[in-house]
Each structure stands twice: as C-alpha cells, then as structure tokens.
Amino acid sequence: VKAARRTQHKTAREGRKTIVGRIDPEVLRFTAGKDRVLDIALAEAECFATAAHATMLSRIGGKATVVTEGQKKRIIRALAGIVREVRSGSFRISQNDQDIHLAVERRLTRKLGDLGRRIHTARSRNDQVAVDLRLYGKEQLLCVMDETLELGRALLKLARRHAAVPMVGRTHMQPAMPSSVGLWASAHAESLRDDISMQRSAYDFNDRCPLGSAAGYGVALNIDRRLTARLLGFRGLHENVLYAGNARGKCETVILSALSQVMLSLSRLSEDLILYSTPEFGYFVLPPEYCTGSSIMPQKSNPDVLELIRAKTTRVLGYASTAAGIVKGLTSGYGRDLQETKEPFIDGMQTARACVRILTALVKEINVDKKALLAGFRPEVFAADRALELVGEGVPFRDAYNHVKKHLGELEKVDYRRAVVSRTHLRTQGGMNFDESAAHFRGIKTFVSRERKRYYGSVRRLLGVEYPAPREREVT
Amino acid sequence: VKAARRTQHKTAREGRKTIVGRIDPEVLRFTAGKDRVLDIALAEAECFATAAHATMLSRIGGKATVVTEGQKKRIIRALAGIVREVRSGSFRISQNDQDIHLAVERRLTRKLGDLGRRIHTARSRNDQVAVDLRLYGKEQLLCVMDETLELGRALLKLARRHAAVPMVGRTHMQPAMPSSVGLWASAHAESLRDDISMQRSAYDFNDRCPLGSAAGYGVALNIDRRLTARLLGFRGLHENVLYAGNARGKCETVILSALSQVMLSLSRLSEDLILYSTPEFGYFVLPPEYCTGSSIMPQKSNPDVLELIRAKTTRVLGYASTAAGIVKGLTSGYGRDLQETKEPFIDGMQTARACVRILTALVKEINVDKKALLAGFRPEVFAADRALELVGEGVPFRDAYNHVKKHLGELEKVDYRRAVVSRTHLRTQGGMNFDESAAHFRGIKTFVSRERKRYYGSVRRLLGVEYPAPREREVT
Amino acid sequence: VKAARRTQHKTAREGRKTIVGRIDPEVLRFTAGKDRVLDIALAEAECFATAAHATMLSRIGGKATVVTEGQKKRIIRALAGIVREVRSGSFRISQNDQDIHLAVERRLTRKLGDLGRRIHTARSRNDQVAVDLRLYGKEQLLCVMDETLELGRALLKLARRHAAVPMVGRTHMQPAMPSSVGLWASAHAESLRDDISMQRSAYDFNDRCPLGSAAGYGVALNIDRRLTARLLGFRGLHENVLYAGNARGKCETVILSALSQVMLSLSRLSEDLILYSTPEFGYFVLPPEYCTGSSIMPQKSNPDVLELIRAKTTRVLGYASTAAGIVKGLTSGYGRDLQETKEPFIDGMQTARACVRILTALVKEINVDKKALLAGFRPEVFAADRALELVGEGVPFRDAYNHVKKHLGELEKVDYRRAVVSRTHLRTQGGMNFDESAAHFRGIKTFVSRERKRYYGSVRRLLGVEYPAPREREVT
Amino acid sequence: VKAARRTQHKTAREGRKTIVGRIDPEVLRFTAGKDRVLDIALAEAECFATAAHATMLSRIGGKATVVTEGQKKRIIRALAGIVREVRSGSFRISQNDQDIHLAVERRLTRKLGDLGRRIHTARSRNDQVAVDLRLYGKEQLLCVMDETLELGRALLKLARRHAAVPMVGRTHMQPAMPSSVGLWASAHAESLRDDISMQRSAYDFNDRCPLGSAAGYGVALNIDRRLTARLLGFRGLHENVLYAGNARGKCETVILSALSQVMLSLSRLSEDLILYSTPEFGYFVLPPEYCTGSSIMPQKSNPDVLELIRAKTTRVLGYASTAAGIVKGLTSGYGRDLQETKEPFIDGMQTARACVRILTALVKEINVDKKALLAGFRPEVFAADRALELVGEGVPFRDAYNHVKKHLGELEKVDYRRAVVSRTHLRTQGGMNFDESAAHFRGIKTFVSRERKRYYGSVRRLLGVEYPAPREREVT
Predict the structure, then answer these.
(1) What number is the ipTM of this complex?
(2) DSSP H stretches of helix in D376-430
(3) Which candidate in C123, C124, C322, C330 is best for mutational testing of the B interface (most B CBs within 10 A)?
(4) What local confidence, expressed as pLDDT, does residue C118 receive?
(5) What count of other Cβ atoms lies within 10 Å of the Cβ of residue C218?
C-alpha cells in the first residue's frame, strides 16, 4: 500500500500518461479514429452515467466505501459544470484524451485531484461507452419516433384534403386501376405507422442498463447495478455481465434495422414524388424552395432533396449491415472492433432523422395538380372494373377477364370519381378511415412525451441540470 | 355478356394459355426463376388462403354472389385434395404454371370446370403471394422461436452444470479476469433471449392479413376483408389496400433482420467454440460425430459445422440487406422486383433454423475439460482484483492501477475458485440466477404453443384437414 | 507397411465409409448443404483436373512413382466415361458422396479398384475444389464476356439506326438538354465496354492454377505443379502453396465484383426502359412477348423482365458482399466457411449471364416511337443553348445564365434536329463514332475465341473428349 | 443581348445568390451534407481541372473565343493562388458555397470580376466533380499501390529472415501439417501482389477524362475534349458524353472493390496475428507501442490496432456495396444520389491507406518466438507425411490414409526442420523463391514513380505550381 501511495504521487505529477501508456503517436491517431468528433454526441450521457456511478459508489456500505457522500456531491457539481461546457459548444476532446471517457475523467481529476482518480473504481471504458450509447439511443429514438409521426400526420393531412381526388393507381409503373390521392398518401402514412412500431421495439431492446459489467466479468466489489439502472431511468438491465458487453453492436444493429425500415418508406415516397413531378406526369408540384437548380441549365428545378433521401436510404441500410458484419465472428468479450460500430450508429441515426424532418417540411408544401391527375386516366384503367361487371352478370371471372382483354378497344372512360368511390370495402379508396390513423399517431405522441418526461426527470434529479427541450443533435 | 360467354367457351378449350399470354418461352423461364421450386413451401398456405377467399365470396350478399354455399364446399374439398397431394410430395409446379398460384387455380379448374374460373374474382396474384408469405412466415417464426429457446435451454443446462468451473475471461482474445463456464454459457443464453424478443416483434409485424388488396387498389365489389383475416387466424389486417401491397418486402426484411440477430449470437458462440477447442486451449471437446475429417490428413477432426454457421451468418445478413436493397427506390404499387425477395426470405429462414437446430444438438454433447480450463490461468488475470484490493485500503483507483501495472511480476496466482465466487453482485460469476432465465424460456414455450394452437385451429376449421404436428419444412 | 496392407483389404470391403468417418447423418446433411446440386456445375472440371493430376503423378520419376503410364491411361478412360455420364444428365451426387470430389473418386474406385484409391495421393479436397472453381470461372467468364459484347452490339445497332432521332436528355429525371437516341443507346454500349474490361481483369486474376497446394502446405513428394498448370491450359500458377488456398474466396469476390459492374449497367438500362415505356413517355415500345400480363387486369403489359433484372442486380451485388464478408477475418489456411462462397459465385454467375442474354433479346426487339420522342420537347430544354448563344455574343456565361433564367417564358422551341446536330465535339450527339466501338467489340470477340480454343484444346488433349460448342450451363 | 447585359450588372451586385436560387436554408444544409468537409480533399484537383478548362476555352478559334490568352493567364495565376491557400490550410468552404466547385468559382469572380463569371462556360458542376474525383483517385491509387508494396516488402523481409523457422500449418484453426514462418509470411505477401494488380486495374479504369460532358449532353460549342484530357495527364477519355456522366459511381465502385481486396488480405493477416499473439500460442510478440492497455486491468496489452483493421475491413466492404447500391436502378443522366458515393469513396480510400500504413509499421516490429513455434508441434502434424511414406512403399493412398488414421497414437515427432525442408516442390516451405516476389514489387515501384512523374509534371506545366512530394492527405 505504501508503494502504491508512492506511485500515486508520481502519477499525480505525470498526469494521465500512464493510463494510455507509451503508445506510438501514429497508433494513438489510428485508434482514436473519429472518436474525438463522434464522442461529443455522447458527452452529456457520459456525465449522467458517471454521476450515477459516483452515487452508487457512495452508497456501498462497510469499509469498502470508495466515495463519501460529500465527495459524491463535489463530483456531481463538477460533472454539471462539464455538461454546461458541452452545451456551450466549447468542450473539446484532445488527441491525448482519445475519447469522451478519458476526457471527462481527466477534467474531473484536474478539478478534484485525488477524487477524480477514484471515479473509475469498478468500471471499465467498455462499460462506460456501452451505457452512454444506450442513453444516447434512448433520447434519439424518442426524437425519431416523434419526427416520424409528424411526417405521418403531414401525409394524413394531405390524404384527407385530397381524399377523393382521382389518381391512376399503378403497378409495374404502368397504369393499373382507378385510385385516389387519399389512398396514395395514407398508404405512405400507414407504412410509417409500421416503422414506428419497429422503432418502439428497438426502444425496448435498448432500454436496459449495461453498467456494472466492468470489463465484462464484473468486479470483486459489491456494486449495486439495480441502483445505477434506476438512477439513469432504465426500465431494465442486462443481467449477465458478459452479455451486457456482448450486446454492444447487437443493440446498434437492432436500432439501425429499425431505422432502415423508415428509410425504406421514405425512399419509396421520394421515388413516387420524383416520378410524379416530372412534366410528363405533373401530378405534384414540389415547393421550389426545396428544389435546386443546375449550374449550366437555367431552366432546371430538380428534386435533389428526394434523390438524396433515396441515396441516404442505401447509406443507412449499409450502416446496418456494416454494424452486423463487424459483430459477426467475434469471440465473446470486448474487442476493439466494436468501436467501428459507433459511426454507423450515430451517423445512421442523424441521417435518418434529417431525412424524416426535411421530407416532412417538403410534404407540407406539395401542390396537387388535379387537372394533371385527371389527364392521366385512359380507358384501359377500367378494364378490371369492366370484367367484374361481367362477373356480376354471371360470367366466371377468368372468362370475363379474357373477354375484356380481347376487346380492350371497346372500353370507355368511366367517370373516375364514381370508380374511386365505388370501392367501398375496408380501407380502399372509398372506404378510408383517417381518424383511426390520427388516433394511432396521437397515442405515439403520448408515449414519447411520457418517456421523455421520465428520462429527463431522472437526469434532472441525478445531475441537477435542467434538461432542455430536446433539440437536434447534429454530428459534423 | 353474350360475347363474354362466347369467349368463355373458347377459353375453356384453350386452357389457361390466355392468362399468361403468348410469352417467349425464354422469358417464361426467366420470370419464373426459382419460383417453381421455392413455391412448394407456400403450397399449403395457398390452399388455406384460397379456401378463406372462397368462403368470403360465398357470403357476399345480394345479386353479387359469385360463389354459392354449395360451390364453396366443392372448392374446399378440392383444395383439401391438393393439400393431401402436397403432403404426399407428388405436387409439381410446371414451367407453364409459373408459380403456386396458377398451379392451384389450374388444378381447381381442371377438377371443377367453370367454378375454378370463378375463384380469382376480386383478388390478384400479388394479393395471394402476399398472404401466402404471411402464413408461411407465421408458422416458420413459431418454429424458429421454439428452436431458439431449445438452444437457450441447452446452454443454460451447460451453465448450470459448470456454474462454478473457473474459466479465464477474455477481452481482445487476451486473458482479462477470472470468470466461469457458468457465466460464459449463460451469456450466450441471454443473448438468445434477446433474439427471441426480436423474433416476437417480427411475428407481430407479420401477423396481419393483406388479403383483399387485389392489385393494391381494391375492387368494385363488396368483399369482406375482416372475414378472411379472421378465417385465416390473423390478429389484424393491413387496412390501406395500397400499403397492404407495399408492405411486401418490408415484412420480409423485418423478419430477416430478426433472424440476423440470432445468427449473430450463433456466430459468436461458434467462434468461441472453434477457438476453445484448439489443442492450444482445449477448454471444450467437441463431439466427434459433429466434426469432419480431412481427405488428406488422417489426424484431423475439424469444427466444420461451426465454421459453416459462421459463414451462414454472413449469408443471412446478406439476405437481409438484399431484401432491403430490392425494396429501396421502388415506386408505390407492385413491381416484379419483389419476387426476388422470396428466395432470401425462404432460404434465410431455413438457413437460420438449420443452424439453430444443429448447434443445439452439438451444445448438448460438448465436453468441458476442467484441467485445461484451470491451466489457462496466469497470475496477470488477477491484476484488476489486486488493484481493487488496494482501493479497499484507501488508494484511489487510478493510482492503484498504476501501481499494479508497474509491479505485474509480483502478482500471485489467487485461488481461482475464490476469485470467481467473490464476484457476487448481480449476475456476475458468483451471482448467477439461472431460474429466472429458465422461467423466461418457459414463458416463450407457452406463447409458441398457444399461437400454434390458434393458427392450426383456424386451418382445421377452414379446410377440414387435420393439421399435423409441425414438422420441418426443408427447401431443397 | 504390412499393417497398412491389411487396412487396405479391410477398407476395400468397407467402401469409403472411413474417408468420411462416422458422422451424424444430420451433420452430413448440414455440411453438404447445396453442394450436391451446385457441384454438378463443377463435374467436368473435376474430371479434367483429376486427369491432369493423374498425368503428373505418372511422370514423377524414381521409386516414388505412384501411377504408371498404363494406369494413367485407364484412369483417363474412366474419367472420360464420367464426363459422358455428366453430359447425359444422369450423374448424381449422393448424400454420402457429399460433393463432386468424393463422388468422382468413388466412381473411379468402383471402376478401377486399388488404382482409384491411389488418385488422391498428394492432393486434398480444398486443392480440388480450388482448381475446379478456376476452370469453371474461366469457361464462364468467357461466356459472359461473349454475351456482354453481344448486348453491346445490339445497343450499338439501335444507336446507329436512330443516331439522329431527337430525344430529350435528362438529369434528375427532369428534361435537361436536347439529345438523341443515338447518344442514349451508345452510352449504354460504352458502359458495357467498361464492364467487359473488368471481366477481363477478373479473367486474368482467375487464370492461375492453385493445384498442388494440397492442404495449403504442400506435400513431401516431388510433384510438378508447373506441369499440371500447363496441362490444364492455365497461363500462370499461384506460387505460394498457402496463398493458393487463401486465394479462394478472394478470386470469387473479384469475379463477383466484375459481374456487379455489368449488372449495374443492366440495371440502369432497365430503369430507363421501364420509365420510357410508360404511356406518359412512350418513347419505346417493348416487345409484347417480353412483357407479362396481370392476373386481374386484362389491359396490362408489364415490363417484368426489366424489373427482375433490376432486382437481380441487388442479388448479384449482395453475393459479392456476402462472399467478401465470409472471407473477412478468417485465419490463414482452409476453413469450411469458404464452402459458402460457392453458391454466391455460381448462382451469381448464372444470374448475371441470364440477365445479359434476355436483355439482349429484348433490346433487339425494341420499337422506337419518334413521334412520342419529339412530343417530349419543350422550349425550356433549349435554355442552356440560348445562354451559350449569348456567350457567343460576348456576355459572360454566368450573366447569360441568369438572364435566361429570368426570361424562361421567352424561350422558343428550336428545331430539335439542328440542336442535336449542333453538338459536334467529340462523341456528343453530333459527333458519334460507332465504328470505333464496333471495332472494340470485334477485338473482344477475337480474344474470347482465342482463349476458348486454347482452353478447350487443352481439355481435348488431356482427356480425349471432344469439347462441345459452349452451351449454357444452368444451375437449377 | 442588351437585356442580358443588364442582368449582368445586376447580378454583379447580387453576387452569386441567383446561381443557387432562393433555397430554404435547411435544404441548403441538407443538400450540402458533408461536402463542405469532404471537398477539401478535391480542392487542388478542382484548380487543376479549371486551369485545363480555361486553357482549352482560350484556344477555341473563331468568333466563339470565350477567354483570351491573356485572360487565361490571369485565371491560372488566380488558381495557383487558391492552391497555395489550400496548402496553407486556410481554405474554407462556406455553407453558401455548398461545395468546392462554387467555392472556387466564387473566389475567381471576387478576384477577377467578369472574367470569373466566364469560367463556367461549357461545363457543368457534374462535369467538374467527375473530373476532380478522377484526379483524386489517380493520385490516391498511386499512394495506395506504393503503400501496399511496402507492406509486401516488410512481409517478404520477415519471410526471408525466418524462412526455415518451423511453424505448425493449420486448417480450420486446427494443426494440419508442418510449415514455416517463411511460407506463412510470404503467403500474405503474395496476396498483396494480387491486391496491387486489382488496384492497377482500377487505376486504368479511372485514368480517363470525363471533362467536356457538360451536363451529360455536351454543349453547342466546339470544345476540345482531347486537349483537356491531355493537359490533365489522362491516358484516355470517356468518349460518349452521357456515359462520361453515368460512369460516376461505377468508377468509385471499381476502386472500392479493389480496396476491398487489400482489406481482405489485411484482415486475414490481422486475425492470424491476433490469434498467434495470445499467450496460448505466443508465436509472435507484438510491439508494445502498437498495443493498448485497459482502463481497468493493469496487465493488459491488447492488439487494438489489428482488431480495428479487421473491423475497418467491414467498413470498406460496406462502402463498396453502398456505392453500388446507390447507383443501382438510377435512370441515365446525373442524379443527386451520386453525391452520396463521395464519402464512401474518399473515406474508404483514406481508411484503406491508413490500415496499410499502420500494419506495415507493426509488421516491421514483430518478434518471432521460435521456442513457442516449436512447442506447437505435436506428432499428429506428421500424419499426412507418414501416409505419403507408405505410398512410397506402394500402398494406395486411401489405404495408407486409413491405416495412419487408425494408428495415430503410433506417430512420432519427426524432426520439424527436416519436415519443412522436405517439401521442395514449387513454392512450398522448402521451395521458396523470395527474389521473384522482390523483383515483382520493384516493378510496381517503378510503375508508381513513372506515373507520378507524368501526373505531377502535367500539373506543374499547367498550373505553374511546384508539385510537392506526395504527402498523405487526411480527411478529418
């Protein structure tokens, strides 16, 4: 112990050099990778989690007490100061810090001396990054759910306003049957409902605390994992400490898979809008302030935003499979490979959120050109309806079908409006029920609000900082 | 109508040629692709769904009645006959049939004449394949849940039996801390619990009936979509008819993402077993009947099964991203592209199931070599424990850490058993609770049984065929 | 040696059981996977390679002679018989055979007794599958090059025939500048030229013999690797025996990456054709025998073939990344994981080839609708030309651009033909040079013929079977 | 023209606002994406290409002259100034600039007034980014080839130094046959030779100038595309202007596929080193300055660098498939989707280069532990050799194999060194030829030097800036 105390004094002078060791600077740069930039997104979570860990350490009874009640308060005050620094935008992670975890520990040590060097008792860096990512994921998933439902509402509003406006329904991009703008827009809205349900599943998956796993093998100290989980507002915790670590990468993959779903919906909506806003179709007029010009052709007004969403869909899908590909084939226990899942996760989340938000704004400004929509109808669109009329007169369907096929030239344009309204069975063009979807979105809104309150409440109680209205967190 | 009747007689002679049209045979072959083989897996579902559709048609009131009660009975009898043919293994889909849908319609027409030509009223092929895939997905997801929980139980049993057997815990594949076989095996079991929760989410996503969307734009006939959904045992239905079609591909992707999770768990377990069964480690001895030899080296006993699982993980991950990549950027409404999601879906499901099953059998036969496990311990493994001891004596952790780092040579081998048992906090090596996991798996078992009963009950009531004990469905 | 001879007699009775060992039948089925079906594609290559190996063994001098000249002749006669069996379609691989390699060895043993049991001297199964895949790859790459150039020629013919037919050039799917069918079609042809160059690179990569690596560590026998390489018609060989094995998976990935390129070209061409054959555009009329109808809508004529090509592009891209993902992170030396690259490789090759062929046939039958093409022009398409006119009068471009942008309404329709022809600089609409591309394709044709002659000549000399005109090898 | 001149004066005042139009700031941010950061990597290329374009404009004869000889000189002087600014690190791209292309044009206009507004005559932004990416790709590919060959040389040196040091050769991670460090290290070197050959193919693919395609449809001005291609040092050019644009994305995919190959080699080498540096194997001792510690376990020295390389392999593979996935299904002509291929391309290139460099440094410092290598041998490793001995005594191989299999216990440890040296056939452990590989690497070195000289010479002649020794270009 005396020898250890001597080491203590020396290292106090040497700073944190020994934590990292004498590593080649090129290696330091290589291993830090983009963490110095990416980890800013985790800075607040790191402070919250450290506050919870300190609180827990202060409650370990017996002679094992590592941190006293008073020391805990000093730690939490220092952490609250770091949160303010992060929020002011002045927080930086140096090359030497490597990541947010050492950056925070180092600041604490600078402010609190010895006390700062106690904070890492009974936890490991893997442990910290694991819990930070869960806290980040929780907050972000609530954001993306909120944003997705707003896009759903915008589409529902569009659907309601143009419920009965006829539109040629297509399959294989070719005219198929009479349909309506209402059916089209609410189909996209219903797709988003499903996407939110996947976000919700991912939210539940994510909502478990890994803290206390240390390096994946626990520690020989009687830490209280349930307490930290509760302090941080988690509904559950990963029980097996080794699995708590192994779940890293898995959880990110689950979330990215959920985000892939919403991106698929966005991508198909974008493709529809790109097609339907060409002059050859002209069904929809995109808001000019959401279109960009050409550097050489003065007449151009291009749907760049929609094309980027389409491409960014591939980016998010790629992130999901990259994250999974990294995890595949690893042995149990932490491997540095997992660091590489961080960028797919954080950038994937921010990409998905940015796409949802911008498309919401665009959808709100879409103009519907009824004349162009009507002009799209040709008699052939009514072929199936005609066949069903013959069925009504007793002809077996397959024969009615063949008859109409042979006499396509005789088809006449039916009144579109009638054709649209004639489909009255459940949720067809004539059987819409927008209220049900609206109520569904309201339910999600309530869920999001409640969870935010719960989460932000925990943070407030723990750290004493007022948790601000959730704003967007951008990663440069 | 008279003209239509004339067509009727002609086409009765011409057979189904006109349904498909005069398509180039090379094109027929190209478009059919692997459907002739793959669709066999959907044959029973096709019969069930057709039975539900016929029943619904028979209940449409008024003059619109397409199928009478008596006709319905004849149709269902014929469908039950086809099911028997499928089960006997004699059912074939010809090049001309293209897929299971036309194959069944054509058989019905051959047996029932005119009546067979009525069955396609108010539905489209997209509609059929969509509902068939949901029924297939439902049954298969119940199988994979059941199989995954059995693997979980096998691991739990291994964990329980060797709960306190010491094992070097590793990070970065390097020795890290004292751990136990119990912790290791139950970590893998807990991972599977999470995987089952994703399978359950996918199950709920899948458990909605798309039938009645026709070509995605409904039909001008008062069909009853709630009825068919109920007859087929679905808990819900896709309301918007266009979205009912657009959900194809999405649903497969959701399921494949869930399967990717279980594959990731399998892959890491396999990697562990490959490593730990090398002579240099020797922790586990694989059952020889699960190993294969070399054609040139007489001494070999290779973990081929585990390597294949590792590689098949990449296959399933690839399927998930292929399915998503196909859906991306499509316009609304059916496109033939979706056919290409069928093989990833069906083969991905069968691949995942086969991997889970074979690994379960292998895990049950694993031999644990305690001597080799103990031999793996070196004094360095206790370095963190020693640092914590110093903390207990009042040294700040970071200083204790540095002290131990500088005096690694002085570390002594601690009694492993004590080291393992000393970790008593929640779910560490010394704080296991296998009963909780066992109870969890029992709960899933109950869920699977209940859902199977419900589903097979619907089938039995609808089609009158005794639904057999679920057997594995292999796709050649 | 005496004991070994005793074993010899016993195993003669026991058959090949001991080669495979007493493996669980479920394991046998799992490890064989789809090899029993896939390996048929490798059957001829297996016979060629075995013939080369036998020839080499017969030339090892000194007392080490394993196979005499006369025995070699008997082996080759037996192999030629197997080739005939394969060609007749009657060759089957049993569950017990596992794969083509044991299937052939077993047949040889059945026919030749002891001699058959000598053939595996100094080689391993990895060795065999590696060389078989190279031979397969070689033949198939020549096919795909040939087929791709035929598609290029078909497009060039289309371009030449409609060289000056005006067509609105587009960016962002929106009208951009005056263009021509000639420019459009030859752009796609030029893309294929690039794709063939990548196939050529892959061909060179593949054209090296791995045989003689045994299990990756050579053998203690003086085998002549250069001889087998030459007998099999390879231009080079993998020198390092360990790398010869490690190159498996890599080589498949290189080939699949090359195939991905041609698929990308096909996919973009298909997308153009899907769009331009909608009634709203109507530029091209697809041959009806390449379109398919709908089961419910009598009027439909859908571009299913093109949609499938688009989707199959994702399939081939997926295969490329699956193959790479399997190889990633493996340790040196053979691992069974590599078996899983076989299906991506073989199915990817067959998929790409089928897509190229069917698109060639379709392109040859496309009808160009000049009236629809002209109708697509609107005055705005000439905006950039107008700005350049102003530049010609001394106005800086950026100002001319801004002026035209502000006065778009004043633009007049220019004579399209003049606009198209006015672009006379290198390879624009007015500066085409189809002869150069045609000459390029001729050069590739010559290369393909020469290589085929060389390869098939080697086979003929070695095995004495007449090598047939290359026909398509389909994988069921 | 007068009106145009008026516009000229107004826009002179308004600055470049009208080029971009009145776009929503949120949209500007969304569409710019990461271009403001990424495009710095393209800044020099942008200046070179603009210099070539200006030179070409100055040589257009007749009244069409857009830029005089004197004006050209002023433009080039201004561009050289921008290059210096870029090199000093002070160049920034503003939100308003969106990308490097407008940033440079705007600086030119600020410096040169009217003349700056002339520079965009007859080109488009797509055109510029396309040529910039080719120039960037060219320089970077030369770097990565150079770096890859250095890793190859480092491995060769390791192989030569330990050519005869025995090492257990493995398959399935299990001991297989006697091998040597020389064989192992040179296998990895030979893999890199192949990777360089793919980089070379990609280099040739990339080495064609797309400039002059304008928006993909040429311009009505007699520009000289061959001249700009020559001035920029390209060996060829994309002839068809539409394809010149369509090749974007394709070319990046080709390069990323080539980089995937080298990453696969790196990944397998890393995996070997991770495994062989565990205490259980101990074959290699990694240089401590390339290992990192743990924050909780004082004894740790982890191969983080190697794990990151393994994970970054997945990243680069993911980039290749993301780039391809973005291109798939696009219609002809530029789409904004392509912007999303920029980050995969640039970051993929920098990632691959960083991995190659750090692994080279690490390989140079590896320590080989001969004692541990010898300790790894067990008698079973000689089983195949024993079987071949029996073959030499006339026993058919399959019988010899079975005999040895049954009497494994009787195998004796052979002298390893003899076993290794006994394999004397081509390029086995005893038949190494390091000189041939060394000569091969020298040849590549010569190629790289020659191409660099050619490229940098073009730049120097064109722009008058001394081209510095190629240094690494890092993307933050």
Answers:
(1) 0.93
(2) 383-392, 397-406, 416-421
(3) C322
(4) 87
(5) 32
